[in-house]
Amino acid sequence: MKIGFIGLGNMGAPMAANLAKAGHEVTGFDLAPYDVDGVAKAGSAAAAAAGREAVLTMLPNGEILASVMAEIAPAAMKGAVLIDCSTVDVAAARAAHETAAAAGLLSVDAPVSGGVGGASGGTLTFMCGGSDEAFAAAQPLFEIMGQKTVHCGGAGAGQSAKICNNMILGATMIVTCEAFALADKLGLSRQAMFDVVSTSSGYSWSMNAYCPAPGIGPQSPSDNDYKPGFAASLMLKDLNLSQQAAEAAGAATPIGAHAARLYAAMVEEGGGGKDFSAMLPRLETMKRD
Ligand code: NAD
Predict the structure, then answer these.
(1) pTM
(2) Which intervals of the chain form a coiled coil (predicted)?
(3) CB within 10 Å: which end of the chain, N or C, has fewer?
(4) ipTM
(5) According to the model, what pLDDT value does residue 284 have?
(6) Mutation pick for ligand 1 pocket among 148, 234, 276 (CB with most ligand atoms within 8 Å)
(7) Which protein residues touch ligand 1 with a CB less than 6 Å away?
């Protein structure tokens, strides 16, 4: 298949590399310099999209997605499928579907879970919104880049699922970090904390797969001085998206709202470029009110 891939950052680069490795002809574009194994370089987003049967985007936010969509929709081949894997607000996802439909293109909002490790290992989870036809056209590519794909419903349904998932992730990471900070003060070893919680009812992805305490559990950003991984600024973005959606839907999300405030404070203090698990060193220096 001829594939265009726009946005070759922490996530996009390994995803594009996996598509190329699987034998697809992948052409990429990013505003920043990049070098991805097996991926040819185009001079613009429109050039990366023109003549491709599928065009993937993996971009920072909804505003950027809208500007890239405006460039690629007129350039793309009729009947091509546009697959946006970025995490954006539900309204931006629906707007991207409308832009695609107006240009005679199929489209899927397909945000992912699994982080950079999942992107490199081809083990992402894709949560998708769009028509059955668009989903069917995109599915063979999801199978290369991921291990689980859920068709959640129509336009925007993938993003709805993503922001709910990430609200849980943000909140569980904070409380996992709180538990480590408390355990430290109680004189419990971090290894004992991990061994107990990872096999007890407090277990979670944040503890078991992405432990925020360095030196224990599987390799994670905490072992690399909290270099992301998944930056705190992106977690704040997702928590704000969940709060925006909760506000619009009239849903009560008190813990999600508090998690958003804690990540906002971390970002304001200059920690936005650190991995979101760096909430642990931040909590260790915080005073109890
Ligand atoms: P990133 O900042 O590393 O990558 C984004 C890339 O988009 C950058 O390389 C940037 O140069 C490029 N870009 C920006 N504007 C562009 C434009 N107009 N045209 C072409 N390229 C442009 O971010 P990331 O960590 O790869 O995340 C990408 C998306 O995936 C975000 O929406 C994020 O929320 C989501 N996500 C990230 C993770 C993670 O663990 N990093 C996990 C799940 C979802």
Answers:
(1) 0.91
(2) none
(3) C
(4) 0.99
(5) 94
(6) 234
(7) 6-12, 29-32, 45, 58-60, 64, 67-68, 86-87, 112, 115-116, 230, 234
